[in-house]
Amino acid sequence: VVSCPCALGLATPTAILIGTSMGAKRGLLIRGGDVLERLAGIDAIVLDKTGTLTKGKPVVTSIASLAYDGMEILRLAAAVEKTALHPIANAITKEAELCKLDIPTTSGQLTQPGFGCLAEVDGRLVAVGNLDWVHNRFETKASPTELSDLGKRLEFVPSSEASSSNQSKSIAYIGREGEGIIGAIAISDVLRDDAKSTVDRLKQEGIATYILSGDRKEAVEGIGETVGIRSENRRSSLTPQEKAGIISTLQGEGHRVAMVGDGINDAPSLAAADVGIAMRTHSKENAASDAASVVLLGNRLSQVEFFAL
């Protein structure tokens, strides 16, 4: 029947409708029939770390300070992060609430996705983010040795639900105007239960897997090793724009790329990919979901296996 041109015209949209319906039954929101056509040629999948390979429910495990009490470091960090939407920000503010700290009001809030947050607290600017970004905000009085020792003093305590090898370990540095870096907070997140099996399945189907993250190298290498992503396919300390640039490079080499992410830091990469896939979150403002062609409503990484069939 499909040898007839008219029948062929009917067969294509019917196949797309069936595929979209099958996806919906598996908890996949597929935005447009052309998405399935683009997914059919995917040979590389890029994965974010926080909230994608991990559960996205990090917790504070320790605090280190160069001159102040740890609760003061937490108080300042929570003030800056209380309006941010990143999982690490949520972990810091939740810990401050658990410690019953009086979180001060702020002004001049500025968030730079992939780097950190800045705000005026108690009359002085305070920054929370990665080491280089915070260091470049203010003139740091601490020596390189003191900064190195600060990170080493942090203890990462494995949660009760996973071994230390299944933990993603991140560090948020805190700096203040007139002082530079004054402390750091260790945050741990747990690897998703289906992360390794999903990566294994994708590789079995001949799909190359990559991890692109804004987190520090040690955290990315540890998670990449655990789930089985090749060392040359792991990239750390990336800005959102650098992630998107790497995806463009892969496309320039002839790859059809899907990107899986969950937060505002992933929006440029999701838009740059041939197909952007967002994990479902409960945030009212989900830039990842807005930029994605597919949303995993079940919030399970293993749902991407549907596209590898």
Automatic annotation (TrEMBL):
One of its GO terms (molecular function) is copper ion binding. Pfam families: Hydrolase. GO terms for biological process: copper ion homeostasis. Keywords: Membrane, Translocase, Transmembrane, Transmembrane helix. One of its GO terms (cellular component) is membrane. InterPro entries: ATPase_P-typ_cyto_dom_N (IPR023299), ATPase_P-typ_P_site (IPR018303), HAD-like_sf (IPR036412), HAD_sf (IPR023214), P_typ_ATPase (IPR001757), P_typ_ATPase_HD_dom (IPR044492). It is found in: Membrane. NCBIfam families: ATPase_P-type. This is HMA domain-containing protein. It comes from Aegilops tauschii subsp. strangulata.
